Amino acid sequence: MEQDKNKNAFSHAASWFTKWVLNNKAVAILIIVLLILVNLLLLPKVSFIFRPFTAFFDVMGLPLIMAGVFYYLLNPLVNWMETKKFPRSASILIVFVVIAGLLAWGIATLIPIIREQTISLLENWQDYLNTFVSQIDSFFQSNLLSQLQTQLTGGTENLSTSITSQADNVVGTTVTGLGSVFGVLSTTLLAIITTPFILFYLLKDGHHLPYHIMKLVPSHMREHSYLLLREMNLQISQYIRGQLIVAFFVGLMFWIGFSIIGLKYALTLGVLAGVLNLIPFLGSFIAFVPIVIIAIVVHSPFMLVKVLIVFFIEQTLEGRVIQPLILGSNLQIHPVTIIAVLLTAGNLFGIFGVILGIPAYAVLKVILSHLFTWYKSYTGLYADTYNPAPEPPISEKKKKKQLSLKRKLR
Fold first, then answer.
1. Which helix (H) or strand (E) holds 218?
2. CA distance 258 to 267
3. Which positions ≥6 away from 294 have C-beta within 8 Å?
4. Residue 401 belongs to what H/E stretch?
5. In angstroms, rounded to a whole number, what is the distance separating the alpha carbons of residues 49 and 400?
6. Which residues contact 231 (CB under 8 A, 6 or more apart)?
């Protein structure tokens, strides 16, 4: 009798374990997550396995990134030429010849000017900064702001001393950072040499890469994997292509505007503004700081008014004309999210994190979105679409962007 009771108790425990653990989808997902975390915890113990891959990316990482960027920039042009009955290899060679001609023209005409202006700017930057700081000091020593200065500094430290100290720290950090720049010159030279070869084969055979990747994916996962791959590729291509073209026009507009008003170092400052525009939201304002200092110190306060007018015109043209035409429905990311991603990626990975943080976030967002869709269908916890909260209104502009994105993914 007691033996039967023990069997019943064991059977009851087994059925309970089967129902609430083995057949519970939520518990199964938690166990999978736990196993993934355990594997991540054990990775440092077997890090020697990944040393060949680390060595490979140390050497080939930069050429692959550069080739990938140029691939997304030039591939639409090669595809267009192919539709005009040009052989693909011939189209690529024509594009390379045009780029080589543009580079030769730039090296012969623009690079000497940029080099001369950059050397002059670096040689005189400390004097410009000191003059700018002394002008700020004179401004804060006026009778109107003397009490404010005392409150800000506690009456124990001159404001100009504080500003000069901070500026010296910034300059010192920048100069120290130049050492690391010279340390990667060999890697950069190797990247410049190898990038054209990688780019050629990417442009030639890159459009066949999804087919070969899908052959490695299990049959029942190929359709969803292909949709995921297409959406990731669309997000990256739109962002890279759009940001580079917008940055080019921003630099061109600043160069033309500064040349018209007669600002010193117009070409160098225009190029700097265009490069920094690759950093969303913050880039233009970062570039604006040295422009303001040069306008005030080298020229006159009236030049600052001209610079502000140029900046206003550029921002208007960029926001109303260039970005809508070029970027279109580029990335559906909230501006606050973009700023948070930039600050976090910059803190973790430096300048490369700032530049690559947004496309990396876009790819991660696509992956997590598909994972969450799979999770909803697998668990069945989201079958009921009822939501007691009021639905936010969707503007016609946003509807058009969503519709455009769906069409591109078909």
1. none
2. 8
3. 121, 128, 263, 264, 265, 269
4. helix 396-409
5. 48
6. 366, 370, 409
Interior angle at CA 51, CA 49 and CA 52, nearest 5:
100
Write the CB contacts of 321 (distance below 8 Å, at least 6 apart in sequence): none
pLDDT for res 97: 92
For the chain, give the percent of residues with pLDDT over 70. 74
380 contact partners, CB below 8 Å, separation of at least 6: 25
Q: Is the pLDDT of residue 346 over 80?
A: no
Instruction: Kindly report the length of the chain.
Output: 410
Both tokens of residue 142? 């006026």
| CA nearest neighbour of 200 among 64, 101, 71, 60 | 71
Angle (deg, nearest 10), helices 51-83 and 222-261: 80
* pLDDT tens, residue by residue, 238-247: 888 888 888 8
Whether 177 has a pLDDT exceeding 60, the answer reads no
pLDDT in tens, 185-216: 667 777 788 888 888 988 888 888 888 888 88
Q: What is the pTM of this model?
A: 0.70
**H-type helices in 84-110, by residue range?**
88-105
**CA nearest neighbour of 163 among 188, 138, 190, 197:** 138
**What percentage of the chain's residues is helix, strand, coil (to nearest 5)?**
85, 0, 15
The full DSSP string for 128-189 is HHHHHHHHHHHHHTSTTTHHHHHHHHTTSS-HHHHHHHHHHHHHHHHHHHHHHHHHTHHHHH
Query: In angstroms, how far is CA 358 from the centroid of its own chain?
Result: 4
Question: What's the rounded Cα separation, in Å, for the pair 67 and 200?
Answer: 9
pLDDT at 285 over 70: yes
The share of the chain scoring above pLDDT 90, in percent, equals 3
The two three-digit tokens of residue 325, written as one number: 């035409």
